[in-house]
Design a protein that fits this description.
Layout: H1 3-18, H2 29-32, E1 35-43, E2 46-49, E3 54-56, E4 61-67, E5 78-83, E6 89-92, E7 96-99, E8 105-115, E9 124-135, E10 140-145, E11 149-150, E12 154-162, E13 167-174, E14 186-190, E15 194-200, E16 205-214, E17 218-229, H3 231-239, H4 242-269, E18 272-273
Parallel strand pairs: 3-9, 11-17
Antiparallel strand pairs: 1-2, 1-4, 4-7, 5-6, 5-8, 8-9, 10-12, 12-15, 13-14, 13-16, 16-17, 17-18
The protein binds 2-acetamido-2-deoxy-beta-D-glucopyranose (6 copies).
One 2-acetamido-2-deoxy-beta-D-glucopyranose (NAG) binds near residues 72, 120 and 121.
Length: about 290
């Protein structure tokens, strides 16, 4: 028995515990009330169809029960009991429910559709259940470490990524922030919220890093400017007096704060909600362009 069947039976039991039904629960409900559940999520003025069973957390969601053409029930009264699977139950007489899942996780959404007897049809009930996986959209890519970049050394950059894994990361370094005409990037899978990239900067100066991250429901692109110090400058800093060191340190903090704020603005402006899961890969791997 698959997970879906177990979920359905659980759902049925839950609904039956709350409602004393006269109809036989084991009749094939799809023959009684043929229909299906369709999920929509709003982002701004756009509604996205979510047909992969994946929803974004904290986003206004609408689930519609679409009754297949059924002449006998055109004048019947319907009742809908929506069990969101997170302890929330919503009753109504409309085939639509509006809600949102505040937290990511896996839920089983159950719907009981009841129809009162009409001249042409008996009183019946239909039970529907569907498993939904609620994911957090990617909201932020924040550079955590390091605060210092030197030339010709193995530097590990660490980022905090706010969003539900697994995530697909596509990144590229742009030396001197020169636009890359090939448009290639390196593809990495991320199974946690910390992203680590190793890089050997071969030149001092300001370099750019473009990071694009997506999960099944969202995508975020962020650009970072990194100031890489040359070896000679580094030596002078080390040999200088404590007083000079303190001022340099403060300047460096102010600088990195400003840089961080800029990257966040860029980040929020580029967030995209994905309409549905693509079967084709969005990002193509070209290998590291500037590793030596
Ligand atoms: C179904 O019929 C019963 C009894 O007549 C009534 O109390 C109930 O409100 C009806 N339900 C709907 C959804 O009309
Ligand atoms: C929803 O309806 C069920 C029976 O149909 C009832 O047991 C439950 O208390 C109702 N819940 C609310 C919030 O009205
Ligand atoms: C939810 O279900 C998916 C697929 O069945 C699974 O990969 C994932 O680990 C589950 N998530 C949680 C939080 O249980
Ligand atoms: C619809 O009503 C007709 C009688 O008007 C009946 O013959 C038919 O079986 C009904 N269909 C269903 C699915 O109940
Ligand atoms: C970084 O690259 C430079 C130039 O290619 C090379 O000389 C140096 O050994 C590299 N450093 C590391 C840590 O790989
Ligand atoms: C750079 O450092 C990381 C972690 O310290 C290591 O995994 C990686 O192999 C190193 N790369 C090179 C080219 O030395």
């Amino acid at each position: 028995m698959g997970r879906k069947n177990i979920a359905w039976i659980l759902c049925l039991l839950l609904v039956l515990l709350g409602v004393a039904e006269t109809t036989d629960p084991w009749t094939d409900f799809t023959e009684n009330i043929p229909g299906k559940l369709v999920f929509y999520q709003m982002e701004g003025n756009t509604a996205y169809i979510r047909d992969t069973g994946e929803l974004a957390s904290d986003v206004q969601t609408e689930t519609v029960f679409e009754l297949f053409e059924h002449h006998n029930y055109s004048t019947a009264d319907f009742t809908y009991t929506w069990d969101l699977g997170n302890g929330k139950v919503i009753n109504g007489t409309e085939p639509v429910v509006r809600y949102h899942y505040p937290q990511s996780g896996n839920y089983t959404l159950c719907l009981k559709v009841g129809v009162n007897k009409t001249t042409f049809a008996p009183s019946i009930a239909g039970f529907y259940s569907t498993n939904v996986q609620v994911l957090d959209a990617i909201k932020e890519i924040r550079l955590k470490d390091p605060s210092y970049y030197g030339v010709s050394q193995n530097t590990t950059l660490a980022f905090y990524v706010d969003g539900s894994p697994p995530m697909w990361v596509c990144w590229r370094f742009l030396p001197n922030c020169m636009e890359d005409v090939t448009g290639g990037c390196t593809l990495t899978m991320l199974y946690e919220n910390t992203l680590r990239l190793n890089h050997n900067f071969t030149e001092a100066g300001v370099h750019c890093l473009d990071v694009s991250i997506r999960n099944d429901i969202s995508q975020l692109q962020s650009s970072f400017s990194l100031y890489v110090k040359g070896n000679h400058t580094y030596l002078v800093y080390i040999l200088s007096s404590a007083a000079v060191f303190v001022t340099t340190f403060i300047a460096a903090i102010a600088c990195s704060r400003r840089r961080r704020r800029r990257s966040q603005i860029a980040a929020s402006g580029n967030g995209v909600f994905l309409e549905r899961r693509d079967t084709e890969p969005l990002l193509v791997q070209y290998g590291t362009q500037y590793s030596s």
